[in-house]
Amino acid sequence: MIRHLTLLAAAGMLSATALSAADNVSMDDPNIAVDYEEDGRYFTEDGVPTFNVAEDGTVDWPTFSGFRRYHAECHVCHGPDGEGSTYAPALKNSAIDMDYYDFLDVVTNGRQKVGAAENSVMPAFGTNPNVMCYLDDIYTYLKAHGSGAIPRGRPAKKERKSEVFAEMEDACMGS
């Protein structure tokens, strides 16, 4: 009995130390908090794209679009829902911890880290319209999931896609 309780206590301590970025993120954080909205896209005070989740769980269109695009292009390496894999890191944490402009640079231009302890390559996606046309959407989706505002999986409710988003998508994809 005592051994069983000791194992449970140890497991509890391990899980308490294995905190994700979401455990330390407040929705009042200026890197997440919505300061203004423009044509259905939400921004922080610094003009960085962010997400908006209504009280009933409805996500803004860019966040939903980001979920779709992430799973079309990124999850093969970075795992479902940005949770990471043995092959590539968890992007849900990158969207919280990494500067937005650094995130854009890495996705656009790629990155290579080679050393004794690490050997990783992120390919450049700067010429892939399926990524570049939706890069802010992917970022806001990862930011929403990384902050804990939305759980894993497809968001159950979403705002409808506005004409503005449809026009931007058509223009970017060359339709």
Description:
With 175 residues, this protein is α+β, with helices and mostly antiparallel strands. The chain has one domain (2-173). Helices cover 45% and strands 11% of the residues. The protein has 8 helices and 7 strands. The chain has helices spanning 2-17, 61-73, 75-78, 91-97, 100-109, 129-132, 135-147, 163-173; strands at residues 36-38, 41-43, 49-50, 58-59, 111-114, 119-122, 157-158. It has a 3-stranded antiparallel beta sheet with strand order 1-2-3, with helices on one face. Strands 4-7 form a two-stranded parallel sheet. A hairpin with a 4-residue loop joins β5 (111-114) and β6. α2 crosses α7 (135-147) and α4 (91-97) crosses α7 (135-147). The longest helix is centred in the N-terminal third of the chain and has 16 residues, at 2-17. Mean pLDDT is 83; it is low at 1-23.
Q: Structural class, please?
A: alpha+beta
Spatial ordering of strands, largest sheet: 1-2-3
Counting DSSP E segments of at least 2 residues, the number of strands comes to 7
Estimated helix fraction: 40-55%
Determine Rg (CA atoms, Å): 18 Å
Encode the helix/strand succession as letters.
Answer: HEEEEHHHHEEHHEH
Uncertain segments? 1-23
Kindly estimate the percentage of residues that lie in beta strands according to DSSP.
5-15%
End-to-end separation in angstroms reads 68 Å
